[in-house]
Amino acid sequence: MSTEKQKIVLATGNKGKVKEFERLLENFPYEVVPQSAFDLTDADETGTTFVENAIIKARHAAKLTGLAAIADDSGLAVDALGGEPGVYSSRYAGNDASDQQNVDKLLQALANVAEENRTARFLCVIVFMQSAEDPTPIICQGEWHGHISQVRRGEKGFGYDPVFWVSSQNQTAAQLPAEVKNRLSHRGKAMAKLLDCLSDKLGLMD
Ligand SMILES: O=c1nc[nH]c2c1ncn2[C@H]1C[C@H](O)[C@@H](COP(=O)(O)OP(=O)(O)OP(=O)(O)O)O1
Ligand SMILES: [Mg+2]
């Protein structure tokens, strides 16, 4: 019998996510291959929820590769902005906005908001689909609470990390070592739940 692990595609075009998933998936019962290895087009994120967009991305990658797929849809919800940019976090400053432009726009939007009202949370939905037709995808979520700082700090991570202040660590997310971010983050928490659900589903618990 072959002991080779089943291949699975990681349906994201975001290199920062790929790096985090490489660590998070160390004990995963599949061989995970990023979508860049397949030259996939990006899926159209037409959903209005993280759940819909994560399913769209996973289904798209599963359809084009014929493999099982994992996708992550995530974003930043800022209380003083009524939850924006939310599902639209990667397009906050425009359709092809860079992380830098998105962070600039966020700092501008919060320019007159006092320290105590700059609360925010990162949200992440991870979807696992056995195939593009899987009628019961596994859907797991995680949240990470913090504050939006006035200035950028740190070079690690990606996206809004340089302005996401984590008070328990007295640092921004971009200053945290990768293993610490993975332990605390919305993505780390969602992934831990996914591992639990998959273990149940695949009977890998014992
Ligand atoms: O841990 C994080 N640290 C900092 N920023 C983060 C994080 N997690 C999500 N974010 C931000 C980045 C982006 O502005 C949006 C995700 O958008 P989202 O559509 O899910 O990802 P994406 O377009 O970068 O790549 P893809 O859709 O191919 O997975 O939220
Ligand atoms: Mg996206």
UniProtKB/TrEMBL annotation:
Catalyses: XTP + H2O = XMP + diphosphate + H(+); ITP + H2O = IMP + diphosphate + H(+); dITP + H2O = dIMP + diphosphate + H(+)
Active site, renumbered: D73
Residues noted as binding substrate in the record, renumbered to the chain: T12, G13, N14, K15, G16, K17, S74, F158, G159, Y160, D161, K181, H186, R187
How is the cofactor bound, in the record's words?
Answer: Binds 1 Mg(2+) ion per subunit.
Q: Which cofactor does it need?
A: Mg(2+)
| Enzyme class per UniProt | hydrolase
| MF terms in GO | dITP diphosphatase activity; ITP diphosphatase activity; metal ion binding; nucleotide binding; ribonucleoside triphosphate phosphatase activity; XTP diphosphatase activity
UniProt-listed SUPFAM superfamilies: ITPase-like
Keyword Transmembrane helix appears in the UniProt entry:
no
Known EC number: 3.6.1.66
GO CC terms for this protein? Answer: cytosol
Keywords for the protein's UniProt record, in alphabetical order: Hydrolase, Magnesium, Metal-binding, Nucleotide metabolism, Nucleotide-binding
Please give one Pfam family short name.
Ham1p_like
Q: Where does Mg(2+) bind?
A: D44, D73
Binding partners and assembly: Homodimer.
What role does this protein play?
Pyrophosphatase that catalyzes the hydrolysis of nucleoside triphosphates to their monophosphate derivatives, with a high preference for the non-canonical purine nucleotides XTP (xanthosine triphosphate), dITP (deoxyinosine triphosphate) and ITP. Seems to function as a house-cleaning enzyme that removes non-canonical purine nucleotides from the nucleotide pool, thus preventing their incorporation into DNA/RNA and avoiding chromosomal lesions.
Enumerate the NCBIfam families for this protein.
Answer: PRK14822.1, RdgB/HAM1 family non-canonical purine NTP pyrophosphatase
The text of the family note is: Belongs to the HAM1 NTPase family.
Q: What protein is this chain from?
A: dITP/XTP pyrophosphatase
Q: Which organism is it from?
A: Aliiglaciecola lipolytica E3
Give the lineage.
Bacteria, Pseudomonadati, Pseudomonadota, Gammaproteobacteria, Alteromonadales
